[in-house]
């Protein structure tokens, strides 16, 4: 596996520009967060290309995967889906309407409380997510093939730590705003 990390990339050039123009500032965070944003955009572009084969978007794939990993009977309410996915409740409702039209999910009411409506995978939806998930995981492995297993473990641990840092920052910022600071 070639190591391309020694060549300058766009982020290195941005950092060099800031160092030249504002040497008084520490722009090193761009080296991490800028690369994460660029990486996320590149991954999304690759994912979109193969989700299209299944008539899915990233959002519908996320909903189907969420339902599939929940175990039988593979159903959740819109609120439960919003809590455990990357969408808002409004976004979930819109997505569920489209997915119902595609016969990927069906809406099911409970006998105990007719107000509670579940989104449940159909047999077709289960077949689609099972096939799409296999391809998705294979493509992810291919995209990360430039990293060794130990590098993947190390990167995953560092990203988990970075996410916790960002979440802690957000909580602190929210508390400061709430206190009028």
Task: Write up this protein.
This is MarR family transcriptional regulator. There is one protein chain. This protein is mainly alpha-helical and 181 residues long. The protein has three domains: 1-54; 55-144, Arc Repressor Mutant, subunit A, CATH 1.10.10.10; 147-181. Helices cover 65% and strands 7% of the residues. The chain contains seven helices and three strands; from the N terminus they run αααβααββαα. It has helices at residues 10-21, 29-51, 58-69, 78-83, 89-101, 123-143, 149-178; strands at 75-77, 105-109, 117-121. The termini are far apart. The model is unreliable at 173-181 (pLDDT under 50).
Summarize the structure.
This is MarR family transcriptional regulator. The chain is mainly α and 181 residues long.
Present the secondary structure layout:
Blueprint: H1 10-21, H2 29-51, H3 58-69, E1 75-77, H4 78-83, H5 89-101, E2 105-109, E3 117-121, H6 123-143, H7 149-178
Antiparallel strand pairs: 1-3, 2-3
Helix pairs in contact: 1-2, 2-6, 3-6
Oligomer state of the chains in this structure = single chain
Distance separating the two termini:
51 Å
DSSP summary, beta strand count: 3
Could you give the order of the helices and strands?
A: HHHEHHEEHH
Classified by CATH, the class of the largest domain is: Mainly Alpha
CATH topology of the largest domain: Arc Repressor Mutant, subunit A
Shape: elongated
Average predicted confidence as pLDDT: 88
Spatial strand order of the main sheet: 1-3-2
GO molecular function: DNA-binding transcription factor activity
Protein name: MarR family transcriptional regulator
Domain HTH marR-type: 29-164
Organism: Pseudarthrobacter sulfonivorans
């Amino acid at each position: 596996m070639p190591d391309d990390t020694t060549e300058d990339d766009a982020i290195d050039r941005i950092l060099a520009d800031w160092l030249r123009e504002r040497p008084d500032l520490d722009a090193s965070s761009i080296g991490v967060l800028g690369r994460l944003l660029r990486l996320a955009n590149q991954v999304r572009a690759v994912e979109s290309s193969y989700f299209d084969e299944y008539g899915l978007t990233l959002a519908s794939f996320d909903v189907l995967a969420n339902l599939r990993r929940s175990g039988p009977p593979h159903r959740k309410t819109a609120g439960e889906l919003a809590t455990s996915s990357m969408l808002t409740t409004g976004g979930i409702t819109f997505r569920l309407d489209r997915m119902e039209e595609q016969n990927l999910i069906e809406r099911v009411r409970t006998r105990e409380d007719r107000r509670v409506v579940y989104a449940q995978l159909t047999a077709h939806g289960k077949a689609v997510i099972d096939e799409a998930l296999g391809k998705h995981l294979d493509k992810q492995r291919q995209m990360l093939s430039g990293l060794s297993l130990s590098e993947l473990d190390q990167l995953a641990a560092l990203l988990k730590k970075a996410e916790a840092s960002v979440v802690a920052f957000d909580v602190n910022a929210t508390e400061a705003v709430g206190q009028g600071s």
